[in-house]
Every structure is written in structure tokens, then in C-alpha cells.
């Protein structure tokens, strides 16, 4: 790197480090709000968050940033950057262009609207009042349509949105993937519905004291290799994971006294997200590459730990004793096998976040198809409830009795997060495909789990995925790790094998 | 306010609000570091704190700020500002001028040196190695001397430092005050030493489980009117209070299993600081006036609650039952009177932070006199240990066996905080004088305490002191509330009366 470029590079690194400092502070301000900030201070706190977000945003779209990016774009300069530096620049440029392209007054309108809209959505959900929410959602969609024009239309308009959460994912690819998945999962779900077998779940309907649940969550997180010196577990209304920096990755869970599995699985889920960020190469700290590479890959790590490990028979063969020791009275007549079966009960239901591992994907496909209709086919917001209900009837054989448990159930759209839902199923598919490779490379995987030796799993994932952070794109990772592109058959194979055995199909 | 000025005023308010946002974020980042941030994340966190502090600092000394302050300084503009706005401007101007007057490279040298020096101090204290610390402390003192020149010498050089913590306090005033106090307290301490009475404290040397201590601290804080919806109690190595915003004022304590009084008194102490900030007029939120007016007045509130209320006989007559209920085994044979006496044992000791309510002031006077000698009389850093030891012998009849428990015991000087110590005794004196007025205005004060009715005390303090925040100076507050200037006789009267009775002098 010539001396002049080197000076610019140092300036760039400092500017980026500064932006990351705002993000760490904002991350902590949010984390604190959700885990125990005093109620009366939240109004002032929200204002503070708004002010500091704006400061961070200004740096991202600053003239200084624009000039530096222009310098690095010159061929004689770009060729002097190593691969990692080029990725850093690309990542920053993507944010810069996205933010820079929206006129400030449009962005402000969007910010204000989406926060109003979230409040309206909450009321509307509560009262099953889609009509009351519709004007807000319509305006959000209209603004998002404008944004797509500013950002630039990719293959289709909806492609532009997909790419924001899953870089380089397209409607063309995803249509094929989801069609294939749907074609295999819908019959599986139907077969299970016809099955006479039904896992027993009565023993889950008891009182499980919170203190014991917390101890168990801490134990399981330790087992999976979550580093408590680089993170902590707290309680919040909705579980989440947040990486403040690569050595401070916090998770939360929610303990329900009448549902012992909820906290266990949310701990494993958020623990999976956290393992990813805790094990990113420390060299990437302070750069924009120190995080998960996409929502989909992130979700693959949470779901691999939650479902593919945490809902496996070997897992419960090993850990049921611990569960029982924490709740000896409640579970004295229960076996590991019963617990395993109960944790894998399939039930067609209306609510995504309560869905089982299998039908969950159908909830996502429904949302994907509807979002695509909105942005690519001109489906109006007014038509959403009817479309929603028809698809639920088609794929899950259920019609929501009201919009509160139907089209109004999720927060995402109220904040304008279109294109996000697909990540959840992408996560499942990536996870199944990664697991398939892991089984080849760690042939005694089930034995290890059954012996409670989870460290080799974490090490393998660190080596294959975690350490790369954002320095590889999702498609690159999946290709390098598994040798092929994303292939939905791995998830379908996994689910078919698992549920055929459980439901004796 | 004319339209042009109004525009500038709005700009000023926004700029100030922005600086306050940095302070809230930094306050939370620090609080988090001390109450449970994961160990491995602290290096990156410290870097983040450094970066955001610099950003906040840049705003304070920005050209924009300089221009606005110049505008408000023009007579035709200043006369358009109301009293509160003028105070706001004055407060901001003071910070601006202080920060602006130091050349950036000097400031940076000081920042780096003081953080190195704190590390060196820790080692030196551990090893009683004053010689190893001396070069750092000498450099700190030399830089502070330079700073005094930049800031401008007031009546004396040391006056400049005093004024930073206690606005408008001077060596002339403080010399007279401390001489008077010393003249009355030294004989009192000597009389107590000769007394044959000795409060029994053996029952304090038992095991008091942490969980119960915590419950009791929470109960007492609630009793004094600390608002848990505008604050929270956590544990940290050193107890502290921090106002993130006027409705988010947090405190910490430290539970020692072998010392039940430590957490009680640190909770009352930090609770006193917190009550002050929680009850500042909400109109002052988002302005530089939303905090305590000086270190001395702040300390008066912590010490009033900790010592004058919390170490009073009426307090223990009321709350001993609660203490006993939390530790029924440990305290079954103890009475309220015994507890009261034990909590007021006077002992000449070497360590300031372990000192009792009476001798504490002598520890402070020693430090004040030494600091004054350094800055006004050219006492060299090399001479500090000998000077220290001579004064401890003079005032407390003790000579430290080594510098670790002598001149090296406090962190303050290693960070350059000269002029700070006086605040602690100023706090005691303000508190005694305020208490004297409170007794006149709430004649049944002791009865109220004995009945556990502490709310009127909080209300009185809110009305007289808390609500004003920084909109009055310390001397204005004490004059308005008590009708006279700071007078050390109130503290001396209070201590003489209390200890003459306890020690049957």
C-alpha cells in the first residue's frame, strides 16, 4: 500500500471504528432498556437513543466517508487492498449507498411513520382491527416502494428487499427453493395429521419454578460452550441475542413457570446466535466484518443448536437426567424418550412463533409468497387478510378466526421489515445442509451428543463458519463448507426422516 | 427573546442535549462495566468509551459552541435571557473555558499519564512503594500546575482547583472553616480516647448472608423514598451512585458477609446521592442544570442520610426490629441501643474510608492542608510521606507503619483529583447546618424518624434543595435554606452533643 493510500486507510479504519463505537453504545442502551432500565427514565432514554443514532448515521453518510470510498474505488488503489480490506470496503459501501440514496426527508418520514405504525399495530392486533392499521401499513408499503426505486430495482422489486437481509439471494432462487420445500413438507404435514400417534405432553403442564429453570439454562449454555466471560444471560419479555462487541455477546431468555421447554429452547436458540458472534476471529473486531454474515446464516446457527441438536434424541438421552434433577417432583415418572417426543410434537397452528420445527417453514413460505405479491404483483394492503387466510387454509388447513391471530400476528411489517421472514426458513435449510456435512466430518456426532461432549461441535462450527464473520457471503460459506449451493432437500430429508420415525409414518 | 436570538437559543439547547446524550451513554457504559459487563469485552469497551468521550468533548469545545456562547455574552442578548437560561449558559461556559484553555496535546498527555499513573498507584499501594509512584505523581502535579496557569490563578493557585469541585469556595474561607472545625474536633477526639466507655461491637463479627442484606438494603432505600421506578440497586466492588438521566438514577452497594453495617450505610449513602438527583425539577432534564450543584452539596445529602439520620438513635429505635428480623439468629440477644452505640464507635484509625463519622473530618483536613502546601507553598512530592505521617501523628496520634496505609491509600491524587477531598467534609458541614434548620421547621423530626415516617424529610429536602439542581450555587443554597453562610459550628455542635452523650464525657 503506498504511503498516501495508507494514510487514507488509517483514516477509514478510524472512521469505521467510530461508527462501531456508536453501535456498541446503542446496543447497550437497548439491551439495558429491555433487561431492567427504570421505567420512568425510558422517555428520556428514547430521546437519547434517537440523538446518538442520528450521530452514528451522519458518520456513515458523511462527506468524509464518501471521499474515502471514492478513493478506494479507484482501480490503482483497489488493487492494493487485500481481500479482507476489500470486503470491509464493500460492506461499508453497501451501507453508505443504501443510506445515502434515500433523501433525508423521506428517511425521516419513514422513521416517524414506522414508529407510529408499530404503536398502531399493537392496538390493531389487540383488537383484531385490520381496518385501523391498514392506512399505516399502506403508507409503509408505499414508502418502501419508493425506497426500492432509490436503492435500485434488482431482478424484481422484491429482490431488492431480499438482498438487504440475505445478500445475493433472489426471488428466482428462492421460488425454486421454497417450491421444492413446500412440495415435500405439505404432504409430510398431512401424513402426520392423519397419524394416530400423538406424543404425550400432559407432564409439561405443571409448575416449574423460575429459579430452577434459570439454573438449567445456565448449565445448558455452559455445555454448548457459551463463554460467560464474554457474555451474560438476563431475562426480558422477548428473548434476544446482542453482540455489543465480539467479546461481549449477551443473550436473554424468558422464563414461563408453566412451560419448562420455552426457556430451554430460547436459551439454546439465542445461545446459538451468541456462539457465532463470540467466535468471530478477534482480528475482525473493530471492523464491519465482526458479525454474522446474514440473517439467514445467523438463524442457521440458532436453529442448529435449538432444533437439530436440542430437539434430538441423543440430546435428551444425555440431558434428561439434568432436567429431571432440576425438577425431581414434576418429572419423576417421565422418561428421556417421553421428553424427546413431547419436544417434537407437530401441530398445525395459526401462530408462527408457537409453531413446531416442521410446520414453522410453512408459516414462512406463506409470508414470503404474500410479500412477493405485494411488491412484485401489486397486491394491495386491503387484500392482505383474505390472501393470508386463504394461504393458511391451503398449507395448514386452518383459517384464523380473526386477524389478531392472522395477518396481524407479527410485528415485522409494521416496521417495514419486508424481506426478513425468508431468513428464518433459510436458516433451517442452511442448518440442515451444514449438519449433513458435519455428520460426514464428525461421524460419531450422535455419540458425542449422547455423552454430552458438545465442544467438538462448537469447534467445527467455529472453524467452518463462526471465525469468518462477515468476511464471506452466505453463498460462499455454504459452498465452501458443504461443497454445493443451498439445497432445500437436506432440510426436507432431515424432517422426513425425523418425523417419519417419530410418527411411525 | 427576539427571533434571531430564539433561533440561536434552540440551536444551543440542541447542542447541549446532544452532549448530554453522550454523557448518558457513557454513564451507562461505565455503570455496566462496574456491575457485570463480561470481563473479556472490557478492552474493546474501554476503547469505545475513549472514542465516545472524545466525540462528546469535541462538541463541548466546538466552534459552534464558541460562537453561541459569544452570542449570549453580548449584553443586548444576555438581558433577554431569563435567570435559568443565564445559569445554563454560565454552566456551559465554565466547561467550555476550562476545556478550551488547555492545549489539546497537553490534555492528551494528561489523559494518558493519569491512566498510567492510576495503574502505577495500584501497584505502589500494594507494595508500599512510594518511590516507584513518585515520578508519576510528580509529573501529574507539574501538569496540574501548568493547567492552573491555563485556567487562570484565582486568589491562590489552590483556589483554582477548589473551585472546580466546589464553585466559589476559596482557601481563605476554607482555612477559617477548617481551623475552627479542627479546634473543636481535636479535643473531642482526645476526650473520647481517654473515655473508659467502649461500645460493644462483638456481635457485628458474625456471618450475615448476602441475600438477607440485600433485602434489608432494598427495604431501607424504599423507606427513605428512593424511587425504584427511577433507579435500581446493583452490586459493585466500590459502591457508587450514577444519574444517567433525572429519572434513571442508579446506585450500587457491596455486600460483605462479615460486616452487616457496611452495606446498610453504603446504601443509605448512595441512596442520599440518588434522592438528590431523582428529585431535581424535571423541567431541568436535558439541560446542564439537571444534577447536583457541587460535590460538597451532593456529599451533604449522602451524609445526612447515612450519618445524621442513619446513625441516629431514633433511626435504630425504629429499624432495629427490621434488622433483627432479617438476622434473627445473629442478633437475638442484641438491643436497638446496642446497635446504635456500635454504629457510632469512634476509633482513631489510619484509613479514611474506614473512619467513623467524627474522625473522618480530620482525615480530610490533613489532605486539604497537604494539597494546599503542594500548590501554594511548593511542597515537593518527595516530601509527601513525611508530611503525611507527621500530620497523622499530630491530629490522630497515629503514624502509618508503611506508605500503603499512609500517603498511598487514596486513588484521588493518582488521577490528578486535587481539590476534591475538601468536598467530603464540606458535605458534613453543610449537612449539619441543613439539619439544624430542618429541626426548626420540622420540630417533631425525631418522632417522625422513630415512627419510620421518612417521607416528610425527603419532601423537605426536595423543596429546599433537590429540586433546584444546579440552578443555584452551593453558597446560595446554604444561605437561602439556613439563613446564613456555611458555619462549621453546626457540625461541631452536632458531633459534640452526640459523642458527649454516647461516650458520657
UniProtKB/TrEMBL annotation, chains A, B:
Q: Which reaction does it catalyse?
A: Release of a C-terminal amino acid with broad specificity, except for -Pro
The note on the cofactor says:
Binds 1 zinc ion per subunit.
Task: Quote the Pfam families the UniProt record gives.
Answer: Peptidase_M32
Checking InterPro entries in the record gives:
Peptidase_M32_Taq (IPR001333)
| UniProt record, GO biological process | proteolysis
UniProt binding sites for Zn(2+): 269, 273, 299
Decide whether keyword Hydrolase is in the record.
yes
Output the Gene Ontology terms for molecular function: metallocarboxypeptidase activity; zinc ion binding
Keyword Protease tagged: yes
The record ties this protein, via Gene3D superfamilies, to: 1.10.1370.30
Q: What keywords sit in the KW lines?
A: Carboxypeptidase, Hydrolase, Metal-binding, Metalloprotease, Protease, Zinc
Q: Which cofactor does it need?
A: Zn(2+)
Q: Could you name the active-site residues?
A: 270 (proton donor/acceptor)
EC code(s) of this entry? 3.4.17.19
Top EC class, one word: hydrolase
SUPFAM superfamilies xrefs? Metalloproteases ('zincins'), catalytic domain
Q: Which family does it belong to?
A: Belongs to the peptidase M32 family.
- Its function? Broad specificity carboxypetidase that releases amino acids sequentially from the C-terminus, including neutral, aromatic, polar and basic residues.
- The protein's name in its UniProt record: Metal-dependent carboxypeptidase
Amino acid at each position: 500500500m503506498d504511503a498516501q493510500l495508507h494514510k487514507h486507510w488509517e483514516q477509514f479504519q478510524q472512521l469505521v471504528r467510530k461508527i462501531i463505537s456508536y453501535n456498541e453504545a446503542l446496543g447497550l442502551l437497548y439491551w439495558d432498556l429491555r433487561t431492567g432500565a427504570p421505567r420512568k427514565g425510558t422517555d428520556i432514554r428514547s430521546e437519547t437513543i434517537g440523538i446518538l443514532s442520528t450521530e452514528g448515521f451522519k458518520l456513515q453518510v458523511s462527506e468524509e466517508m464518501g471521499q474515502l470510498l471514492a478513493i478506494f474505488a479507484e482501480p490503482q488503489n483497489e488493487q492494493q487492498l487485500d481481500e479482507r480490506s476489500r470486503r470491509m470496503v464493500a460492506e461499508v459501501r453497501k451501507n453508505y449507498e443504501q443510506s445515502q440514496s434515500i433523501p433525508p426527508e423521506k428517511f425521516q418520514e419513514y422513521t416517524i411513520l414506522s414508529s407510529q405504525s408499530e404503536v398502531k399495530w399493537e392496538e390493531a392486533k389487540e383488537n383484531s382491527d385490520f381496518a385501523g392499521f391498514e392506512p399505516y401499513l399502506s403508507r409503509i408499503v408505499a414508502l418502501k416502494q419508493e425506497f426500492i426505486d432509490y436503492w435500485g430495482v434488482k431482478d424484481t422489486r422484491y429482490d431488492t428487499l431480499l438482498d438487504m437481509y440475505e445478500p445475493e439471494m433472489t426471488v428466482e432462487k428462492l421460488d425454486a427453493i421454497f417450491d421444492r420445500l413446500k412440495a415435500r413438507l405439505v404432504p409430510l404435514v398431512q401424513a402426520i395429521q392423519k397419524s394416530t400417534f400423538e406424543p404425550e405432553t400432559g407432564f409439561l403442564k405443571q409448575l416449574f419454578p423460575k429459579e430452577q429453570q434459570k439454573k438449567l439454562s445456565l448449565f445448558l449454555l455452559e455445555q454448548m460452550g457459551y463463554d460467560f466471560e464474554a457474555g451474560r444471560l438476563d431475562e426480558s419479555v422477548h428473548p434476544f441475542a446482542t453482540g455489543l462487541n465480539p467479546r461481549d455477546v449477551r443473550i436473554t431468555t424468558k422464563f414461563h413457570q408453566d412451560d419448562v421447554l420455552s426457556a430451554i429452547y430460547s436459551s439454546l436458540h439465542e445461545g446459538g446466535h451468541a456462539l457465532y458472534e463470540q467466535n468471530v476471529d478477534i482480528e475482525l473486531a473493530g471492523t464491519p466484518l465482526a458479525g454474522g454474515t446474514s440473517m439467514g446464516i445467523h438463524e442457521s446457527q440458532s436453529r442448529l443448536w435449538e432444533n437439530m441438536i436440542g430437539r434430538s434424541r441423543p440430546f435428551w438421552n444425555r440431558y434428561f437426567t439434568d432436567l429431571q434433577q432440576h425438577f425431581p417432583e414434576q418429572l419423576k415418572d417421565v422418561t428421556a424418550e417421553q421428553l424427546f417426543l413431547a419436544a417434537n410434537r407437530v401441530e398445525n397452528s395459526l401462530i408462527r412463533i408457537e409453531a413446531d420445527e416442521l410446520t414453522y417453514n410453512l408459516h414462512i413460505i406463506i409470508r414470503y409468497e404474500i410479500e412477493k405479491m405485494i411488491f412484485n404483483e401489486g397486491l394491495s394492503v386491503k387484500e392482505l387478510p383474505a390472501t393470508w387466510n386463504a394461504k393458511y387454509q391451503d398449507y395448514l388447513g386452518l383459517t384464523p378466526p380473526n386477524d389478531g391471530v392472522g395477518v396481524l400476528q407479527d410485528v415485522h411489517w409494521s416496521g417495514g421489515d419486508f424481506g426478513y421472514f425468508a431468513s428464518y426458513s433459510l436458516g433451517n435449510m442452511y442448518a440442515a445442509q451444514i449438519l449433513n456435512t458435519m455428520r460426514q466430518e464428525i461421524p460419531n456426532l450422535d455419540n458425542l451428543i449422547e455423552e454430552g461432549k458438545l465442544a467438538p461441535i462448537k469447534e467445527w462450527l467455529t472453524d467452518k463458519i463462526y471465525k469468518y464473520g462477515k468476511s464471506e457471503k452466505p453463498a460462499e460459506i455454504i459452498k465452501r463448507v458443504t461443497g454445493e449451493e443451498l439445497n432445500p432437500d437436506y432440510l426436507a430429508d432431515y424432517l422426513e426422516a425425523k418425523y417419519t420415525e417419530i410418527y411411525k409414518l
